[in-house]
Amino acid sequence: MVCLGNICRSPLAEGILLDKCKKLGLQWQVESAGTNGYHNGEPPYYMSQRVAKLNGIDISAQRSRPFHSSDYDQFDLIIPMANDVYRDIKYLSGQKFDGKKTVLMLEYLFPGSDMDVPDPWSKSEAAFHEVFDLIAQACDKLIEKHTSAKQP
Length: 152
Known about the structure:
The protein is mainly alpha-helical. It is built from five helices and two strands.
């Protein structure tokens, strides 16, 4: 899960997906990162924490970290929250970039749409709730796609 600063969208995505995996008994490794490095080591933005908590998910222990091209070696999927982040990942990864492993978050919810998860930074609490709901729905589709593909 990757966004710009790793303090708003991607921490929500990490928390939501981990929560859903835990409830389903899935042993997935899920982490989030940012492409701009402005907030390395910081906790998620207070409004992301608040909205997650209101939905029963605690993301307060997360800390922002930078995206590294080596993430392609460690993870089966790299999920950018938006097209600008996708481009950043492609640039930062150089020859390690793998378009088959890099899927926009909302591609799961709206296939072929090329849509971004809106960046709620400096917006109202309602914007964070909207982002939470979009990511939660996309995570349901992501789980559905990647668990049904492994069943006979």
